[in-house]
Amino acid sequence: MHIYPLMVELPTLYTMVELDEYVVMPNHIHGIIGIKTTVKVAPTLGQIIGVYKSKVLHECLELAKIKENILGKLWQRNYYEHIVRDDNDLIRIREYIRHNPINWTRDKLFS
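The chain above was modelled as a monomer; its predicted structure follows.
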C-alpha cells in the first residue's frame, strides 16, 4: 500500500494545505493538516480527507487486483478532528503523534 506518498501528495493537490507532523500506523493515521486562509474558496477538511481516502482506496484496490485478493473494509466512516488553538496545543499534539508508534503495543487492536 502506498499511503505515505499519497500523504505527502496532499499539498500538491491542494496548494492551501500544509502538512505538519504525521505518522502512519498499522490501523490508523495521525496527522496535522494546516489550511491556509489566503485563498477565497478553500476545500473543507472533510473534502481533503475524502480525496485522500479515495486515493488510498484506489491504490489498495489496484494492489488487491494484482495479487488477486479480496479487499475488505478499509476506512472507518468518519474521522476525528481537533482545531489547534495555540502553540502549546500544537506542541502537545506533535508530541502525541511522535510518540504514538511507541504506544502501539498498548493499542486494543494490537495483535
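The chain is about 40% helix and 15% strand.
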